[in-house]
Amino acid sequence: MSIGQTVSINFAMRAIDPANGGNPAGQVGVSLLNSSGDAVNFYIYGGGPGNYFFTDAGSTGASAGIMGYQYQSAFNIAFTVTGANTYSAVAGSDSWSGTYNGSLLGLEVYNNAAGNASDVGFNNLTISSVPEPSRLGVLAGSSVGIIGLRRMLRRK
User: Which domains does the chain carry?
Assistant: First the structure.
């Protein structure tokens, strides 16, 4: 992803297992990936209901906001690259911003030890594109040329 691009996905889940018998609490979420793994991770864990959390280069297990557990209710999660290694995010009614390391290469929706493995659903994945600088130059040059041509024709 590059500066100005946004990736969004609708996300829904059901039950998430609490810690039990020495096994950790289940975790369900969405991650932006770099070459080392998770660059930004948005998640909920352990039997809900509860709030959502995020981990990135500058925060570990930080609260994403006050939105309560959305049992079987889809909500949209969107990440926007705002600068070199910075991003902003909106998940349902929660929003935050942060930093990440490396280039963002992919997106992962995951269900780790949560319920019966049918507890995560997603749809409507979109990635907005930002015009490349060369395309912007062509567009700007074309616009200037058209304006100049119009002026020249009006003078005649």
Answer: 6-130 (2.60.120.200)
